[in-house]
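User: Earlier you gave me the apo prediction for this protein. Now I'd like the version with zinc ion bound, so I can compare the two side by side. Same sequence as before, with the ligand SMILES added.
Assistant: Got it. Here's the input I'm using:
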Amino acid sequence: MIKRTSHLPLIKSNGEVRVEDFKTLGKLQKIYGVEFHIHPYDLYTIINSEKILLDTLSNVAKPIYKKMLEGIDEQIHKFDLYPLIVAHLPVLKYPDIEQVQSEEVALDAAKKVFQDLELESSLALETMHDPYRNPGRHLLGYQIEHFTEIIGDRNFGICIDTGHLTLSEESVNKYLELPFPVLCVHLNGNAGKRDDHHIATRNNIKDSEVIEDLLKTVDGPIVLEIGNHDYSEEEIRIVVDRTRKGLI
Ligand SMILES: [Zn+2]
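And here is the structure of the complex with zinc ion:
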């Protein structure tokens, strides 16, 4: 059992990585014969933890974010973690705060940040729910065009989050038609009101048949992303077994 630490695990608020934490992950991989993959915080979480600034794409924030991704990339190779980083796109609005930046400004800044990145690991950008369909922060990544614009001709992939898609106007098939590979699936469901991260069932995710086909073919991690809902160990075990067979 790994205890929660008082700091943000893996990253410091200035974007530097905590090498000791990665070293521990490397050791745990060997002990348990598993592979870890990294899905880092977005800048809101990193920066707001020390209340340094709130604009995720300001000129202060951009180098912090870049430093974080490049630092993670280096550690992935040093400790032989699974060579994939799954990133969120920039935040448009935070809880309790007015819109912090227009979509146009955020898209422009994101294009610059992601298209300039040089990583050895693969990078996947995560699909998001529609804005305002979930209390909390709202991010880019809820429309197909965000991915085509931000990825451009870089060889990045996408991460399909089934819970976010259930809260989205876009269909799964539209994402699958993009020229970007699906490198990861976040498998979770909700009742259509908010991003609850429940166990995915055929009733609480959109396009479940398409998703089952995807689970059978995806070449990358399938992450359950189940929130803290007091599921029993047995319930989780059943989900893991079904997911391994490509079933929801
Ligand atoms: Zn997710």
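For your comparison, keep in mind: The mean pLDDT is 89.
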